[in-house]
Design brief:
This protein has 11 helices and 5 strands, in the order αααββαβββααααααα. It is α+β, with helices and mostly antiparallel strands. The protein has a 3-stranded antiparallel beta sheet. It has a two-stranded antiparallel ribbon with strand order 1-2. Strand 3 (96-105) and strand 4 (111-120) form a beta hairpin. The chain starts with 14 loop residues before the first helix and ends with a helix.
């Protein structure tokens, strides 16, 4: 019998399982270690998942603190990449063709600026970024080594321009963002509704006993929701109809949808349907996660077609 037996497809690991397996730990051990050592002790499950997804996208090791987090004032986290992480990002990028620095001094040999030239193999000209000491210096212990710190600044900014790294920050940037106050103006209270005029005596409805007050969904009470005219102040539906938005569930649904597509065009159509850039407008971290999910699926499709 010449029946062809197909191999069972390998089960796809979930995000936490994938990261834990990569470093040889059990998922709970990995999660506990990262939470305790990377500034995520009080992070919510959604914030922790976002942090881990950024680490996976950029292939940074949180156990070596190539990436960690600052708690944000008012809630949330800010993903921070150490200088070792930035160097890893640049040197491991397949298009990287090296980088170099120029140092500018003023009178009395005072440091003025440092310029970084970042080269890519697929471009004829380097990306050139100059960072000025007076604009970057901070009154912190590391900045006593001003040449080293300004060199880091120039290198990080050049890397962003050259390779499009987004949603991650250096330690100085992260500290400033974490200390920022939420300046979003509070929502003004809703104006009171005008009183409902009493119905004419001829149209007055019969009195209803207290036990007959509608407290459930009108459909459950045998009333057609399309035909039911709610009384003023009556709330239809239950608390289950008013659930909060869950970013983790959104990303999982988007990832599952992408996995069903086998062409670049199909992934682009799903991307437009989910529209994560609008969904997370102003949220660089979650926008970066969405881009990471899309790019990962595109790379899988290219590899499957022999273009990887």
């Amino acid at each position: 019998m010449n029946a062809v037996t197909k191999a069972e497809p390998q089960q796809k690991l979930m995000l936490l399982e994938y990261m834990a397996d990569k470093y040889g730990l059990r998922p709970q051990e990995f999660a506990d270690t990262v939470r305790k050592t990377c500034g995520l002790a009080t992070a919510s499950p959604e914030e922790f998942a976002a942090f881990i997804m950024v680490a996976r996208e950029y292939d940074l090791n949180p156990l070596l603190r190539e990436i960690f987090a600052f708690p944000k004032r008012g809630g949330g986290i800010v993903p921070i990449v150490s200088i070792d992480g930035w160097v890893n990002l640049v040197n491991s990028h397949p298009a990287c063709d090296g980088f170099e620095f120029d140092v500018e001094h003023g009178e009395n040999s005072d440091l003025v600026a440092i310029t970084c030239r970042m080269y890519r193999k697929d471009r004829n000209r380097p990306v050139v970024v100059t960072e000025y000491y007076d604009e970057c210096k901070r009154d912190t212990e590391p900045w006593k080594m001003k040449h080293r710190m300004l060199r880091h600044k120039a290198m990080i900014q050049a890397a962003r321009y050259a390779f499009g790294f987004s949603g991650i920050y250096d330690e100085d940037e992260g500290a400033k963002i974490a200390e920022m106050k939420d300046v979003t103006p509070p929502q003004p209270p809703a104006p009171p509704k005008p009183p409902v005029p009493p119905a004419p005596q001829s149209e007055a409805k019969p009195e209803v006993e207290d036990a007959e007050i509608i407290t459930e969904d009108p459909v459950a009470d045998g009333i057609d929701a399309d035909e039911h005219d709610p009384e003023p102040g009556e709330i239809l539906g239950t608390s289950a109809d008013r659930t909060e938005f869950n970013p983790t569930a959104f990303f999982e649904e988007m990832e599952t949808s992408f996995a069903a597509e086998t062409t670049v065009e199909g992934v682009e159509e799903r991307w437009n349907e989910f529209d994560p850039m609008a969904q997370f407008d102003g949220d660089d971290t979650n926008q970066g996660i969405a881009k990471a999910i899309k790019n990962q699926r595109l790379q899988e499709i290219k590899r499957a077609n022999g273009n990887g």
